[in-house]
TrEMBL record, chain A:
The keyword Oxidoreductase applies. SMART domains: Transket_pyr. This is Alpha-ketoacid dehydrogenase subunit beta. Its EC number is 1.2.4.-. PANTHER family: PYRUVATE DEHYDROGENASE E1 COMPONENT BETA SUBUNIT, PYRUVATE DEHYDROGENASE E1 COMPONENT SUBUNIT BETA. It holds the Pfam family Transketolase_C. It comes from Nocardioides jiangxiensis. InterPro entries: THDP-binding, Transketo_C/PFOR_II, Transketolase-like_Pyr-bd, Transketolase_C. GO terms for molecular function: oxidoreductase activity. Its cofactor is thiamine diphosphate. Keywords: Oxidoreductase, Thiamine pyrophosphate. Coiled coil: none annotated.
TrEMBL record, chain B:
It catalyses: N(6)-[(R)-lipoyl]-L-lysyl-[protein] + 3-methyl-2-oxobutanoate + H(+) = N(6)-[(R)-S(8)-2-methylpropanoyldihydrolipoyl]-L-lysyl-[protein] + CO2. The branched-chain alpha-keto dehydrogenase complex catalyzes the overall conversion of alpha-keto acids to acyl-CoA and CO(2). It contains multiple copies of three enzymatic components: branched-chain alpha-keto acid decarboxylase (E1), lipoamide acyltransferase (E2) and lipoamide dehydrogenase (E3). Its EC number is 1.2.4.4. Pfam families: E1_dh. This is 2-oxoisovalerate dehydrogenase subunit alpha. Its cofactor is thiamine diphosphate. It comes from the Bacteria.
Length: 325, 372
């Protein structure tokens, strides 16, 4: 058993996927000798060669479009987009091509592509380096969207996404790359990929989070416990398809729900979750489903990003409102 | 090279080119006997594809198709390129490449589904080695490059084994050369030295925008900027197009990297049936190109050289009539798809949300109560 950061766990997951299937190839900018700007692919080109780990020209649409052709040829490409805000030049390829080629081939062709995107803020970065585009991809039929909140999930979910036959947008919370550690036992069997999970039990309200905000919610639950309030935390893990089972079960018990994500609040994942909870748990709800999210501005300057990101205080304030409703 | 390669003039006269000769593949000679036989076969291909295209345009006018992109005038470019393909080559087509589809032995009626709204693809892309059509201009040229990269990594290039070596034909038009994806495709192709032939049909119009809006220099010159060879061929000359594309495919297949072929042709019809070319181009312009018609010139050559006689032309005309009637009848008979097809073709495994939505539609179709 080893203790790994999320970055190292993702690296180990990629390595194992490449060892197990010779058709897995990686494409991205600076992922070869440099090992990627976050070092997620460190050492892989050295061990698997330049045909398995391709340093690409600096063209995101080109990277994703080339991956489509490789997939049609029988490969399982794993694409690295360097930063969230750089994915938009590839948006057409992802939304119109990757997402639709299965339908366009009359269901004849699977398109097993994983698009890895380091996402989210909190690292003091410059413009285009802190975005949360999950809703844009989750709103696209044909794509699946998942995100991990800890090294163990990162290790397993990445391998499961690569083995999956549908295209998966795999969002990696970049501020957790080096800040979280966990013990990883590669002999343990993982749970299913497209499943949400209760990561902390509680009775007074349910916090629903994914990716970077899971840690925020766990910290909020710790603080609430000191004040005698018991919060349950659900890690969505899969955004599309949304696995509402554990969420609904939790909300039926607690009667209160707060959805927490970094992405802009309007038309976001929180809206979808709130609507689904309302449909399924209407008679169990003691309060409206509340959202603690990023504001509807472009991501702010990094010196003030802490005012924009959901914080423990903002989460607890929402819980207070839900309980006092 | 940016001079226009030509082997058959608009008047139907054979001419020589210092670098390029028409030498049909042995398999074509085996099938059609001799060179006049091959030329008759090419003329037959062009004639039948044109008839199909005219019928499809008429079907749209009768409300049987939602839209039709005509290939009228581009038959030589498409048949020349299509007949130059080896069985193992793979095509990433545009929505206008009916002639190349014909050469891949795709039933022309199967091309209508996309435009009638009955099917996304009417053929098996793997069996025909002809990808589903992409409506977004130029996006598929990247797929061609990725596929070619895969072929290269599979060792299916430059082995000398004709059954194994693969070239990929990436089709696009002059308008698409302005797209970022086409330029990115060329960067990637050059960078990885992949076996792709960029087959650019310069038909002079991107809907209403003339090619001069896309480029101030001959488009073929772009190849030099990416670092691979480019050939400019008379795309209304089926012999020259065949010869140049054949050479380009061979170049790619043998591991010498990408090639750009600019086939200079003309879209005689509208961009699609939604558009009215009389608003943006003159009859004079059209007349110049009518005199360069790809079918007329080969017919003239075969007549003057005795390669085909009246009886042969009459039989071809009858065959075209028969094809037209057949396409018309079978278009009407194309079945409407089940609405459930959409749910089944979205993911490899249906998701729980989609399964619930599918059940709802299935129940509506059955007229039964929806279980909730």
């Amino acid at each position: 058993m080893t203790t790994l950061t999320l970055a190292k766990a993702l690296n180990a997951g990629l390595r194992r996927a490449m060892e197990q299937d010779g058709k897995v190839v990686l494409l991205g900018e600076d992922i070869g000798r440099l090992g990627g700007v976050f070092r997620i692919t460190e050492g892989l080109q050295k061990d698997f060669g330049e045909q398995r780990v391709l340093d690409t020209p600096l063209a995101e649409s080109g990277i994703v479009g080339t991956a489509v052709g490789l997939a049609l040829r029988g490969y399982r490409p794993v694409v690295e987009i360097q930063f969230d805000g750089f994915v938009y030049p590839a948006y057409d390829q992802i939304v119109c091509q990757v997402a639709k080629l299965r339908t366009r081939s009359g269901g004849q062709r699977a398109l097993p592509i994983v698009i890895r995107i380091p996402y989210g803020g909190g690292i003091g970065a410059v413009e285009h380096h802190s975005e949360s585009p999950e809703a844009q991809f989750a709103h696209t039929p044909g794509l699946k969207v998942v995100t991990c909140s800890n090294p163990v999930d990162g290790y397993w979910m990445l391998q499961q996404a690569i083995a999956h036959d549908d295209p998966v947008v795999f969002l990696e919370p970049k501020r957790l790359y080096h800040s979280t550690r966990a013990e990883l036992d590669p002999a343990l069997e993982p749970g299913p990929l497209f499943a949400s999970r209760v990561v902390r039990s509680g009775t007074d309200a349910t916090l629903i989070a994914y990716g970077p905000t899971v840690q925020t919610c766990l910290a909020a639950a710790d603080q609430a416990a000191e004040e005698g309030r018991s919060l349950e935390v659900v890690d969505l893990r899969t955004i599309s398809p949304l696995d509402l089972g554990p969420v609904a079960e939790s909300v039926r018990r607690t009667g209160r729900a707060v959805v927490v994500h970094e992405a802009h609040v309007s038309f976001g994942v929180g809206a979808e979750v709130a609507a689904a909870i309302t449909e399924q748990c209407f008679f169990s709800l003691e309060a409206p489903v509340l959202r603690v999210c990023g504001y509807d501005t472009p991501y702010p300057l990094s010196r003030v990003e802490h005012e924009w990101l959901p914080t423990v205080d903002r989460v607890l304030d929402a819980v207070d409102r839900a309980v006092g409703f | 090279m940016s001079d226009l390669i030509q082997l058959l003039t608009a008047d139907g006269v054979r001419v020589e080119h210092p670098d390029v000769a028409f030498s049909p593949d042995p398999s074509l000679l085996d099938t059609y006997g001799d060179e006049p036989g091959v030329l008759r076969a090419l003329l037959r291909d062009m004639t039948l594809v044109r008839r199909f295209d005219v019928e499809a345009t008429a079907l749209q006018r009768h409300g049987e198709l939602g839209l039709w992109p005509s290939s009228l005038g581009q038959e030589a470019a498409q048949i020349g390129a299509g007949r130059a393909l080896a069985p193992g080559d793979y095509v990433f087509p545009t929505y206008r490449d009916h002639g190349i589809a014909w050469c891949r032995r795709i039933d022309p009626v199967d091309l209508l589904g996309v435009f009638r709204g009955t099917d996304h693809v009417g053929w098996d892309p793997e069996e025909k080695r002809y990808a589903p059509v992409t409506i977004v201009i130029g996006a598929h040229t990247l797929h061609a490059v990725g596929y070619a990269l895969g072929a290269l990594h599979d060792g299916a290039v430059g082995t000398g084994d004709a059954s194994r070596d693969t070239a990929v034909l990436a089709c696009f038009g002059d308008g698409a050369t302005s797209q970022g994806d086409v330029n990115e495709a060329m960067v990637f192709a050059a960078s990885y030295h992949v076996p792709v032939v960029f087959f650019l049909q310069n038909n002079h119009w991107a809907i209403s925008e003339p090619v001069t809006r896309q480029s101030r220099i001959p488009l073929v010159q772009r190849a030099a900027g990416f670092g691979f060879p480019g050939y400019r061929v008379d795309g209304n000359d089926v012999l020259a197009t065949y010869a140049v594309v054949q050479r380009a495919l061979e170049h790619a297949r043998t591991g010498q990297g990408p090639v750009l072929v600019e086939a200079v042709t003309y879209r005689m019809g509208a961009h699609t049936t939604t558009d009215d070319p009389t608003r943006y181009r003159t009859d004079d312009d059209l007349e110049v190109w009518r005199r360069r018609d790809p079918i007329d010139r080969l017919a003239r050559y075969l007549r003057t050289t005795g390669g085909a006689d009246d009886a042969w032309f009459a039989a071809l005309e009858a065959e075209a009539d028969e094809l037209g009637a057949d396409v018309r009848a079978r278009c009407h008979a194309l079945p409407d798809p089940s609405p459930l097809v959409s749910f089944d073709a979205t993911y490899a495994e249906i998701t729980p949300t989609l399964a619930a939505q599918r059940a709802e539609v299935a129940a509506l179709l059955d007229g039964t109560e929806v279980a909730r």
